[in-house]
Amino acid sequence: MNRVLQLLGKGAGPRREDATPALDRLAALARTAAAGNRAALRTLIALVTPALLRAVRGVLGARHPDVEDVVQEAALAIVQALPGFRFESTVLHFGCRVAVFTALAARRRLKVRGEGLHDELELDVHDHDQPRPDEQLAGARRRMLLRGLCEDLPDPQAEALLLHVMLGFTVEEVADAAQVPANTVRSRLRLAKDALRARIASDVRLQELMEVLA
Amino acid sequence: MIGTDGLCPDSLVTRARAGTLSSAERRQLDAHLAQCESCRLTLQLGYDFDQVLSEQPGDELLSARVAAAAMRAPRSGRGRSLAVAAALLLLITASAVAAGPTLWRKWKAWRAPSPAQMVLADPPTPVLAPAVEPESVPEPEQAVVPAPASPVHAHRPRPSAPEHVAAAPSADELFASANARRRAGDVGAARTLYVDLQQKYPTSVPATVSRVSLGRLFLDRLHDPASALSQFDGYLAQTAHATLAEEALFGRATALMRLGRREEERATWQRLMLRFPASVYAERAASRLGPTR
User: Fold this and answer.
1) Smallest Cα–Cα separation from B272: which of B291, B243, B245, B244?
2) Which of A43, B72, B85, B260 fits as disulfide partner to B90, beta carbons 3.0 to 4.6 Å?
């Protein structure tokens, strides 16, 4: 978790006064929680946990058996980091960023220990209106490639890719969460997507699937 | 090709995933996608993830457990990141620790090959073979559960082989194994192991705690609220262990709600609020008490 907290601190510039993004309905609650109100903290964690869950499932795989543990780890990291949170992004985006870093660290730990990552098991977790099994398979393969790539990318690029592509943050939202200029995020995304395209192009199985789908 | 730069309408890509584009914006995005491979890739991958990141059954309970655990865990200090568990998970961990390094080694050996194993061209048989045969499974309900390739089943004693009875798993081992199967998504095996634990060691702490675990399993995964209710009631009826009373009351109320037993459900929510006024389930209790009041 210390590594996660360090990463959260990266890129933090001088604190901007009244920098809380508009429409952040959790900001007041988070400020109360950061001031030591445990009831507010409990409510805050309960409210952000679904977003943490989505982020952790995205990085680890929807049915990975460690999802709950990693979400708890992320929730604890939020509790610890909250007093230093500058409210320069929304609280939810801050939480998602913590969850992404926590899950990425867990994924790298699992890789080092040689433990399975359950990417392939996601095939049976899908919407019932999902059209074709081969499309699901291609999607699962692309997800797997992106996750695998993020194990190897530099943290800032992996963060940008996961927040933007996986969780659907806009470039500006990623910039706010990471506390860097939007053009820096664009640059990181460009590099990360170049690497992803190269990985997709070299994946024979995915290319075969894409041929089937074409 | 336009790259990921200021010319790309990334907010349109994001909103396309959310399905909130107007028809004019959709045309604008389509025109851009026709010439921008980067945005096509972003959108495709976004849809790929959206397929699997929707809410799943049981998420509400999971969120409540996470919130409860975050509040119970130490709030500061280095190296505390692994001290993240709800009361249930704390007990699970405690049980695993109590079982000692042997259990840990068995679990790790089953769950992940050692580096030495990984370099072997032909990996060795899991440490704890042989697997149990169907006729050796004691309870009828276990006979219909496919035997998972887990050390637990491999360790289960055969009734006809007295020399193996001495190696029967302890209550802690059974509990840890059942939890491992549950976390791995092997619901049938988890249920079998929890039942096994409760039958073999009915007065043990793991068996008591397992009533909440199995209750949750019946409620969230097996969609059997009547059996869930029986498990939660079993936990609440005893007095030796009360750490999970909040969770058991929440589970009981939820089971009663699903069974349509409104008055008993209402009484359980009130009991929960009376005993745990700052409960993380308070909002849920209030919302349920409103219409039934």
Assistant:
1) B245
2) B85
